[in-house]
Amino acid sequence: MAAALIVGLLTGCSVAGDGGGSSTDSLLKPTAQPGATMRAGGLGSAALAARDADGFTVSTSAGRPKVRVTENACAPLGYALSGTPVGKPVSTVVREASGERATVTVVLAEYASDEARAAMDAIGTALDACTAGFTATVDGVEHELGKVAPELAPEGTDQAMGLGATVERGGRKTPAKAVILRSGNTVAYLSGTPSIPAALLDAQLVKLS
Predict the structure, then answer these.
(1) Burial label, 76 (beta-carbon count in 10 A; 0-12, 13-18, 19+)
(2) Do 6 and 60 touch, CB atoms closer than 8 A?
(3) What does the alpha-carbon distance between residue 7 and residue 18 come to, in Å, rounded to a whole number?
């Protein structure tokens, strides 16, 4: 159960307040829009399957609790650490992978124009502003995310970012990890606890390239 905490903890984020029509607001609202993917072969062709990662169980995602991030500047970090896309992708595919004592959410998001790059930039900006942590409310229950720090990310894509944090709920602290990969207009959000196994990350890199 501890391994699955952060995967469900922050998924379905929504920023406090109504928001306006500015470009910043649009990046802070992870509302996936239906539409045709721009990736050749379809976005699903880049999604993990059980045959891609030996020793892992891969399935489609179930519903998750909704989370409210009260500090707008930190919202993109909350999304990234939960595997929730930043901004408004035109298409998304979600997978859950478990194995090697870890549970990982993998979300592939296809963006229009330069919005994939903008999503990566928003996460980087939030990291600069929120290294001390922030608060999220999950189904009315407050959680503290602290000590958010950059971590090593793999090569092989146009952009890559690694994140590490702790999540505290009821006095119990759990490590959370995220890796965000951009290949063209596609961004892969991997998040999990207590780690993201290298074999799983490598498998997604191959599918994304």
Answers:
(1) buried
(2) no
(3) 25
With 0-12 CB in 10 A as exposed, 13-18 as middle and 19+ as buried, what is 109?
A: buried
Write out 46-88 in H/E/C secondary structure: HCCCHHHCCCCEEEECCCCCCEEECCHHHHHHHHHHHCCCCCC
Enter the DSSP assignment of 3. G
Each residue's pLDDT tens digit, 154-191: 999 999 999 999 988 778 899 999 999 999 999 999 99
Where do the H-state alpha helices sit in the chain? 5-9, 23-27, 75-82, 115-129, 198-208
- The answer to whether residues 176 and 193 touch, using CB atoms and an 8 Å cutoff, is yes
> Which residues face 172 on adjacent strands?
169
| Structure token digits, residue 102 | 């870890």
Q: How far is CA 68 from CA 28, 39, 101, in A?
A: 12, 31, 28
What sign has the CA pseudo-torsion 116, 119, 123, 124? positive
Q: Output the pTM of the full model.
A: 0.81
Q: Rounded to 5 degrees, what are φ and ψ at 26?
A: -65, -30
Task: Kindly state the tokens that stand for 37.
Answer: 């993917």
